[in-house]
Amino acid sequence: MDTKNFKVNNEKSTIDWIGRKVTGAHNGTIGVKEGNFTFEDGKPVSGKFIIDTRAIKILDIEDAETNAQFASHLTSDDFFNSDQFPEAVFEITHAEPGDQNLYYVTGDLTIKGITHSINTSLHIVTTDNAAALEAKIVVDRTKFNIKFRSSNFFTNLGDTLIYNNFDLNIHLVAEAN
């Protein structure tokens, strides 16, 4: 059995996010703190990466003051409560191989100390020295006690409503260790 361990390079890895509301959408990036993956015979058997919830950037708001206010709001208790929960974690619990470097993955996502199982597909390309992993995770924020302007918890929001699901588009670059 050929076992290889890979460590995520946080400087080369990115997570893009998209959040939608009635009147449009916002997008940005969130930092990857660290991570690692283990492969046996070229297939993922375990993996985990940690998101730095304090490293949220907004890309679609150009005004510096408005951008800073929005970033501060995303790290507040209305959203990620980054002072108390500076990290969010995704850990693979099961992976089934598909076609052409695609794996069907079940993993535990923890945000604000709350963990839920998430299903996604993971595209992985490995060489002897590196691995590139791509995934899109659709997160229902209300499952993680992120209720701000959610129609599940508030009425008469009109055009201030924020949709419950947000997307994380994940691109991790890992190096053999």
Automatic annotation (TrEMBL):
UniProt source species: Chryseobacterium rhizoplanae
Classification of source organism: Bacteria, Pseudomonadati, Bacteroidota, Flavobacteriia, Flavobacteriales
InterPro entries the record matches: Lipid/polyisoprenoid-bd_YceI, TTHA0802/YceI-like_sf
Domain Lipid/polyisoprenoid-binding YceI-like, first and last residues per copy: 5-175
Gene3D superfamilies named among the record's database cross-references: Lipid/polyisoprenoid-binding, YceI-like
Protein name in the entry: Polyisoprenoid-binding protein YceI
SMART domains in the record: YceI (SM00867)
